[in-house]
Amino acid sequence: MEDELDEVARAADFSGVVRVDRDGQVFAKAYGLAHRGYGIPNTVDTRFAIASGVKGFTALTVVSLIEQGLLSLSTRAREVLGDDLPLIDDAVTVEHLLAHRSGIGDFYDEDVLTDITAYVLPVPVQNLRDTEQYLAVLDGYPQQFEPGTRFKYCNGGFVVLALIAERVSGVPFHDLVLQRVCEPAGLADTDFLRSDSLGERMAVGYLPVDGEWRTNVFHLPIRGSGDGGIYTTVADVSALWRAFFAGRIVSPEWVAEMVRPHSDETEGPGSLRYGLGFWLHASSSAVLLVGGDAGVSFKSVHEPESGTTRTVIGNTSDGVWPVARFLNS
């Protein structure tokens, strides 16, 4: 398999890391450069941003607060938001937000903004350092449909969840994720790193502009939130899946609820359904985390029945997809 994988990676100009966990054995291999200017190669321990892969972390954080009694699936967002974000319908609940059924307007509507490399945030990226500062990004987008009536993927909804989690717990969202997800799962290399930091083993995201490589520093918030922006390694992703399905982050009952289809419609590539924070394969038990941004691409598929995990993570916008397709085949 390795020779074929190398050929697929070369053809895709893949820069990133591949890892497969199966039957107690691990295959991991790195390709390309973590920093193109200095010629620093990626390694299997390089830390990459995973874009929307963080939504699983956000969902687990929120569910842990539900288990503690600080929230419920039926908690209305308005109860926590108060007068903030007045265009969000008063009927929107935590469950609607977790399942992408809220209908709230989205600052990054992926049905409209099809070119992720062209998107520019409406506020200076350096102003987005903590969750409350995202209010300026979230505000001003009208409700799109009645809450709970259908599925529509919504990035802004997961930033709202981060805001809700922070307010009800009294703990900054970034710290909350570390305490409630990363620590119980043993994720030592996962954190919301600043894009302008000199983080150890941190890959720089790249995208082609006018025939040359540019960094993605002006395309994304300086520090991520509930919708994207956490950095991790392929080993930590595998550890996350193990801890999740072992019930070490939330209870087994809540694991079952999170990987139950909350949207019966098949959505996205490969006919995927959606649970609470996780994509679900429509015809198998496989559970997925997927992310893509300017200079970021990520896909991890876990099969609970066999314990097999296939993760591909990269520091370009689209290099992951052909490699992931090869692994899934």
UniProtKB/TrEMBL annotation:
Protein name (database record): Beta-lactamase family protein
Origin organism lineage: Bacteria, Bacillati, Actinomycetota, Actinomycetes, Pseudonocardiales
Origin superkingdom: Bacteria
Ranges where the Beta-lactamase-related domain occurs: 17-290
Gene source species: Lentzea tibetensis
Gene3D superfamilies: DD-peptidase/beta-lactamase superfamily
